[in-house]
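Researcher: I'd like a structural prediction for the single chain below. Treat it as a standalone chain; there are no partners to consider.
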Amino acid sequence: MSDTPKVVAATEKRFPCHNCGAKLAFAPGTSVLKCQYCGFENEIPQSAEEIEELDFHAYLEIARTESVADVEQTVKCSACAAEFTARGDATSDSCPFCGSHSIIAVAAEVRIRPKSLLPFKYKMEEARTAYENWLKKCWLAPNDLKKFARETGGLQGMYIPYWTYDSNTTTWYQGMRGEHYYSTET
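Model: Treating it as a single chain, here is the predicted structure.
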């Protein structure tokens, strides 16, 4: 087992209720986050800015200036196994739980900030059903993957940033097609 601390990305952003401070969750198909404890509806801010595709070559020129470094990263202490948050530009830090020093082996990544967000389309049960139906068609799928699909905590939604670009391309290709046809007559 390695003594190198494990560096993982921050995995969750929490949105507290404006009324009672409880953690809110998004329900697909809605435009508010409703608190399950006090019933307060927290409005999801909507942007009037149009979602546009970016010109690939033009964006390559400005991508370096728009890139932002991670402001924090999660580090696992090699002494007590606690996880704590360190600054994104830190190369070492002290564990707040046991006081041991941790060297952060991997520097924080520089990422391009997303400009918009598409909400989930399906509720969790609909997504689970679609995933299980898809797996039924994959007869060579590994058994561990099928087991993962059956577990109630296995499938989880997450937001992953993607970017879309316009691009003019030219492609040359060559292909061959063959057809064998046999007919038996008696």
